[in-house]
Amino acid sequence: MDFQSSVSKLSSPVKDLVLSVTQNGRLHVGKQDKDEREVIEWIAKIEQGDLIKEAGLKTLGTQLVPRTFLVSNYLTAADVALYGALHPTISKLQPTQYFAHPTVTRYFDHIQTSVPVRTAADALAPAFALVPFDFSDAPRVERKVEAPKKKEKAVKEPAAEAGTSKAAPPAEAAAAPGEGKTQKKEKKGKKAPADDAGGKKKGAAPAKAAAADDGEPVPSMIDLRVGHIVDIMKHPDADGLYVEQIDIGEETGPRTVVSGLVNYIPIEQMRDKYLVAVCNLKPASMRGVKSFAMVLCATSKDGKDGGIELIQPPANSKPGDRVYFEGNEDATPLSQLNPKKKIFETIQPGFITLDSKEAAWVNPTTKSVHRIRTKEGVCVAPTLVGASLS
């Protein structure tokens, strides 16, 4: 079954909503064949009706726990169909009832406030009127903390008998976690010389300056890119966190990013903003939502109470534009920072905003200044001078 056939089986006005969004080019049916197949499968489930009845909300909630969207990490026609099909049920729930289905409520509110869905829904009013939710009296979720597991003591192997050779350890035990064959070969080679003040390795091609993490941490190892917030909501289980969808120019769609900025930057000032994203940190779960990048912010020299601002890329920047350090234009960042090596944590103390409010990294040894920029110009903080960046 193709996409059009699956949508044609949906009842009106849900079908009209899905067609309105997709035909206006505001939504992906699926960016890959695999994604499109999943979208069609979800629409078929929605059309059957059992999943969206009040009795089926518990099952649906379980399926939605690890998800921001139904398919992959971006909004698809499946989300529009599920939102439309849920609307008659959710709109009739009283607070005590939707408190009983927090995951479904979180998902529904997220989809109904996304720009493509809201635009189409308003055009089809009153069928898909905005459903208001009052969370002021929501019961707090009690989280059980598991007791730390005791580490088992390693059993010492008996000495090998005379005349016999000791068995080689398994491959997994022979290599440190995260180290593969390529990493081993790199260790056998000569250690790369330390970076000079400009961050380039002496005697090495500039394009390979940060290709491996076996040298001293340098800023060019960090993958910075221009991002654009295309959707944002408050984290359903954490008062101080936002959950953003940030377009960084990838074919797979926006990345889900969790930021602790609720108490410092109003949501209205976050919507539709262009920013600088740290894109090669190891993904981390924050209160049940996995975050795939970090928003680069400037924190006042007087501390958080003095203000926090998004670092802004120059005008005319586009999602995915490379952000680099002056003197390291041709360096290649690591595909992912190894958290055990504390690369970002080692570099971060040198991040600062200059008197000009320009974002920069100051080499702690040579005091040389390397401004953070794109091909369009230098990235800045709106008002903060002498602020730290993180």
Summarize this structure briefly.
By secondary structure, the chain is of the alpha+beta class. The protein is built from 12 helices and 15 strands.
**CATH architectural label of the largest domain:** Beta Barrel
Q: Count the E strands.
A: 15
Q: Give me the strand/helix succession.
A: HHHHHHHHHHEEEHEEEEEEEHEEEEE
C-alpha-based Rg, rounded:
25 Å
How much of the sequence lies in strands comes to 15-25%
Report, as a whole number of angstroms, the end-to-end distance.
48 Å
CATH level 1 class label of the largest domain: Mainly Beta
Average predicted confidence as pLDDT: 80
What this model shows, in words?
It is a single chain. With about 400 residues, the protein is of the alpha+beta class. The chain has two domains: about 5-125, Glutathione S-transferase Yfyf (Class Pi), Chain A, domain 2 (Up-down Bundle), CATH 1.20.1050; about 220-390, Beta Barrel (OB fold (Dihydrolipoamide Acetyltransferase, E2P)). About 25% of the residues lie in helices and about 15% in strands. The protein has helices spanning about 5-10, 15-25, 35-50, 55-65, 75-90, 95-100, 100-110, 115-125, 170-175, 180-190, 265-270, 345, and strands at about 225-235, 240-245, 255-260, 275-280, 285, 290, 295, 295-300, 310, 320-325, 350-355, 360, 370-375, 375-380, 390. Strands 1, 2, 3, 4, 7, 10, 11, 12, 13 and 14 form a ten-stranded antiparallel β-sheet that branches. A three-stranded antiparallel β-sheet has the order 9-8-15, with no helix packed on it. Helix 2 (about 15-25) packs antiparallel against helix 5 (about 75-90), helix 3 (about 35-50) runs parallel beside helix 5 and helix 4 (about 55-65) crosses helix 7 (about 100-110).
